[in-house]
Every structure is written in C-alpha cells, then in structure tokens.
Specification:
The chain is 39% helix and 17% strand. By secondary structure, it is α/β, with parallel strands linked by helices. The protein has 2 domains: 149 residues, 3-Layer(aba) Sandwich (Rossmann fold), CATH 3.40.50.2000; 174 residues, 3-Layer(aba) Sandwich (Rossmann fold). The model has no long low-confidence stretch (mean pLDDT 94).
C-alpha cells in the first residue's frame, strides 16, 4: 500500500476522548511526515487541537445544531457546506475514532478513498461499521481506548507510538502560568484536580484535603489545586480539611498544559486534566469509580490508579442510586499509590 498523502481524522468530541486519540495521531504524523493530516471536530473542542503540533488543519463542524434544530435549513446548510468542502480535498484515508453512526456517515459523505473504523464489536454504535470500507476490532472490548485507537492507525501502516504528544502553546499562555508559579514561589509541587464533568467521578473534596496535608507533611511537596468555572467551593472544602497551606489556580484548559509539564505529579479522577497529564508525560495517579481504569485510565506504563470494585462496577453512570459507593476510597490507599509512583519516577 502506498503511503497516504491526505488523511482525515474524525473525532468530534469530547476533550478526554480527543486526548485519547492524540497518541494515534502522533503515530500517523511520525509514520507519514509528508502527509497532510486534518482533523474534523465540533467547534467547542477546536481550541485544544489548535495547539497540537503538526496538524495541518482543524476543521470545525456543528452537528449539535442539526440535532437541536433539526428543521432549521441553516443548520443543515452549514453542515453540507463543510462536507462539500472536504469532498473536494479527495482524502486517501479517513479514520473514525468515534464509532458513531453520525461520524461514520460523515466519513461516507466526505468520500475518502478508504474509510477506516471499528468493527461491530467495538464501535460505540455498532451499525456504524456498515459504513466503513475497512473495519478492525481490538483484541477485547475492555482494551484501553488509547490502544484501541492505535489498532486503527496500525492497520493503515503506522506503528504504535508511546511517546509524549507535542503541544505548541502560545508563549503568552506559558509565560503567564510561569509567572503565577513564580509569584507563589512554587517549583516542586503536585497538582490536584478535584473536579469532573460527572458528579459520579468525583472523589469527596474533604478527602482531597486530607490527602493534600499528607503530601505536604510527609512527602515535603507543595500542592496546587486547579479548578474550573464554578468550582471554587471545591477548593474551599479542600483547604478547610487541610491544616497546611495549599495553593489555588483557576486556569483554562490550555493553561493547564504548561502547568502539567512543570508538575511532579497530577492526582485526579477520570477527567480531561488527568488525560492531559498523560499526554505530556507527567506522572499520574487516577481515582476511579464508575468508569473502568483498564479502558479509560492513565495509559503510561508506570502510572497508577485506585479503584473500589463493586458488583455494579463499571456502570458508566452519571447518577448513582447507591450514593457513589464506588468513590468511597480511603485517603491512605490514594496516598500509598502517590508515594509509589513518585519513587518510580
């Protein structure tokens, strides 16, 4: 098979899932340095791909508008305009990492010479596999998503990539974060990110406070708690349960990139910031409950996670009838994994 000259990646959302696809992209770029590689994504996630090194173009598409306003001609007109523009590019290969009917249909309409996607056993919506010209199923349904994505890229001739993902963050963002750290006199620190899109993924904030105190007292490291919009109460609860001083940074997702690169470790649940830390190669300890760490956990070999396995694991539920029993994980268990990971670093 000749090396492809034009490749289209289809992974529309979400931030964590896009981060899981970045090692597969890095494998493509490393294997086909002269190829044009574009990425089709929903507009709300474009900002992350805009700082990924080596992508030729990030193309926005608004499928959400078609779903929320299915009878509005303008919604479909915008979608069709993007599809027609991409058809004219005549891609050699499109790779659908999402496995939905809508993403498979987009690949079909865009008309790449070869359309690669997951087979019936692994596609998120199994009928999607009918719309690909080449399908592949990972060895088992519980395979880590990062590895499964690279099964797709291996089938087009890109060997597995296990290195770091390269980001090109604007200097004003990197310098701004460095200035904040310098102002706090921070150089050797652990990042705790207590938030999460799903309430069921959140470890109790009070336990993060107790954990932070042990990190500071016993490991002699500073602790930085990062929060997003509307999460200040999480920090206040953490600080009120920690007798030592901890630091608080309210950062955008792009600002987290230079912060993660400078951290000794990141501790978080199954969230975008945890997967970002993996992407830049920072040591990670993940705290897992409703989602499987074997499928969605930290993906670097030395990284660690803590999980409480119950009969209802892994439900992938955003609400819980048992009051998040799976997140009832003792502080000692998390601290033990942190100490072990730091020793292995």
């Amino acid at each position: 098979m000749d090396a492809p000259q034009k490749i289209l990646i289809i992974r529309l959302s979400s931030l964590g899932d896009i981060l899981h696809a970045l090692p597969a992209y890095a494998a493509l770029r490393r294997s086909f340095p002269a190829a044009r590689i574009d990425w089709l994504v929903e507009n709300r996630a474009r900002f992350l791909l805009s700082v990924v090194a080596g992508l030729d173009e990030v193309i926005e598409i608004d499928t959400a508008a078609c779903q929320s306003h299915p009878f509005a001609a303008s919604s479909w007109a915008g979608l069709w305009k993007v599809i027609c523009s991409l058809r004219r590019r005549r891609y050699d290969i499109s790779i659908d990492f999402q496995g939905l009917l809508k993403t498979a249909a987009l690949g079909l309409l865009i008309g790449a010479r070869e359309r690669v996607g997951f087979g019936k056993a692994f596609a998120w919506e199994w009928p999607a596999h009918w719309l690909y010209s080449r399908t592949v199923d990972p060895e088992h349904s519980g395979m880590h998503v990062v590895d499964a994505n690279q099964v797709l890229t291996q089938t087009v001739g890109a060997p597995r990539w296990s290195g770091q993902v390269q980001f090109t963050v604007p200097p004003q963002i990197s310098n701004g974060v460095s200035e904040q750290l310098a102002g706090m006199k921070l150089s050797d620190f652990v990042v705790i990110n207590p938030g999460g899109g799903w309430p069921t993924k959140r470890w109790p904030a009070a336990r993060y406070g107790s954990l932070a105190e042990r990190i500071i007292r016993e490991l002699k490291l500073e602790v930085v708690v990062t929060t997003g919009p509307g999460e200040d109460e999480l920090f206040r609860t953490i600080q009120s349960n920690c007798l030592a001083r901890i630091h608080h940074l309210r950062l955008s997702f792009l600002e987290l990139i230079p912060l993660m690169k400078q951290a000794r470790m990141v501790v978080a649940g199954d969230t975008g910031p945890l997967h970002l830390a993996c992407a830049v190669g920072t040591p990670v300890v993940g705290i897992y409950g409703p989602t499987s760490p074997e499928r969605n956990g930290p993906w670097l070999p030395a990284d660690r996670y803590v999980v409480k396995v119950l009969p209802c694991s892994y439900c992938y539920g955003r609400t819980c009838p048992t009051h998040n029993e799976c997140m009832d994980i003792p502080v000692q268990e998390v601290f033990r994994e942190i100490a072990a990971r730091l020793e292995a670093a």
